[in-house]
Amino acid sequence: MKNRRGFFRSALGAGAGISAAGGGWARKPAGDLPQGSPPVIVQTPDLKDSPFAVDNGVKVFHLIAEPVKQQIAPDKTIDVWGFNGSAPGPTIQITQGDRVRIIVDNHLPEPTSMHWHGFEIPHRMDGGPGISQDPIAPGGRFVYEFTLHQAGTFFYHSHMAMQEMIGMLGAFIMHPKASYTPPVDKDFVILLQEYAVLPNNSVPNTMNMEFNWLVLNGKAAPATTPLIVRVGDRVRIRLINLGMDHHPIHLHGHTFYTTGTEGGRIPQAAWMPGNTVLVGVAQARDIEFVANNPGDWMLHCHLPHHMMNQMSSMVGPMVQSGTGIPAGVSMNQGMGMLEGTPGAPTGDDYGPSLGRGLGVGSTNDQAVTNSPLHQSPTGSDRSMHRGMAGMQHEGMQMDVNVAPNAASVPGFPQDAYMESPMMAIDELVERPQNYGLRPGWSGFMQGMMSFVRVLPEREYNEISEKIRRAQSNQSGESSR
Ligand SMILES: [Cu+2]
């Protein structure tokens, strides 16, 4: 267990969580920004920016469509398709009026085509496979080149539907020539995706209509990297959705205005106040607010099932017998792909199994339950506590606070055993941006959740310094 924890820390905490996090506002994209560029660079937490070269005044980007391993949670790495090593791919940032060339190489085992979503560009550059161009063959290349007169939050994606669902998208930010007013101090982009990853699989089932992993910039909470802002900052968050569901994104503690869509800037007279913005499929929404309320404010999709990880839980009256009913089918059986009994979760033989939690220690084949049931098929002498994922995890707190008569209350359990300090994995997702969060916080953060941490000057500077140090350690390591 120690080894594993050490591994995760280095793999997620010191590795992807920071380097890919790009949480540092000091960071600039590789390549030189031309004069006249807006001073505020869009940050994409947990993802990288695309570098570019300049060739005769043309900004040249290079995207490689390829299979990637994306670590979406400490104990979960999935096989998806993306660009340049991640899914979503790197964020492209240009300035209105730029001429850009994007070289797309196809390292996938099948044809692909790149669509520039909402771009007003010549038809032959639109990336519609079979409509505006031949699909790019495996091993092939297509060079897109166009001049961009628009400004706003855009994105790119494969125009093959299933390829979209296995990760092939990325943000494309077009900065306005003259900064929007009022200017912002911090500017973030978050891409919303969903995956259906069946037990014992690493490849998402793209045909599925239901999803058990809901991710922001390729990470499920608590592995998402918080947005760090200073009290008084004006903040923009650009939300981009490409999946099967619409996501109502809610921010705690602040009222924001929706200032942009996938079509660009909304005139100020039409800005809408709110604290929840619905980001429909294939849409972008920019929200802006003044971060005038200090605190660690949750930012999350408000669809209840999108605030969970690998949910497959069944809760409620099945546990009311008081004596308990058999649970403890393995992950292999418990998500209900198998028909009949034993093995079907709705069958007569088994109670509910498999928590909605991150499932550290249970993601593969351990028999778990999220309710106070006994483990019948897998070991008669195991206590009910040992059946719970969280409680099998070293260092977990053991106090699950439920009433003595809990099992006789209709509806119990709902969130007991699913959200609690018991599920916390603070250490496994440790990174500078999480510094100072309330201990046990990670037990309550799942799925499409992150934070906007509105920090007073001192805390802000402290965390900024930690981020800078982590980044220079990182670059030191990689240059060795
Ligand atoms: Cu959602």
Name the bound molecules. Answer: copper (II) ion
CATH topology tier name of the largest domain: Immunoglobulin-like
State the share of residues found in helices, binned by percent: 10-25%
Helical stretch count?
Answer: 4
- Assign the CATH architecture of the largest domain: Sandwich
Radius of gyration: 23 Å
Mean pLDDT: 79
Report the principal-axis shape: globular
Q: What string, H for helix and E for strand, traces the elements in order?
A: HEEEEEEEEHEEEEEEEEEEEEEHEEH
The domain tally reads 2
Q: Determine the structural class based on helices, strands and strand pairing.
A: mainly beta
Considering the protein shown, what is the CATH homologous superfamily of the largest domain? Cupredoxins -  blue copper proteins
Q: Kindly, what is the distance between the CA atoms of the first and last residues, rounded to a whole number of angstroms?
A: 29 Å
- Classified by CATH, the class of the largest domain is Mainly Beta
Let me know the number of strands. 23
Q: Uncertain spans, ≥5 residues at pLDDT below 50? A: 1-39, 312-339, 350-398
* Percent range for β-strand residues: 25-35%
Largest sheet: 7 strands, mixed
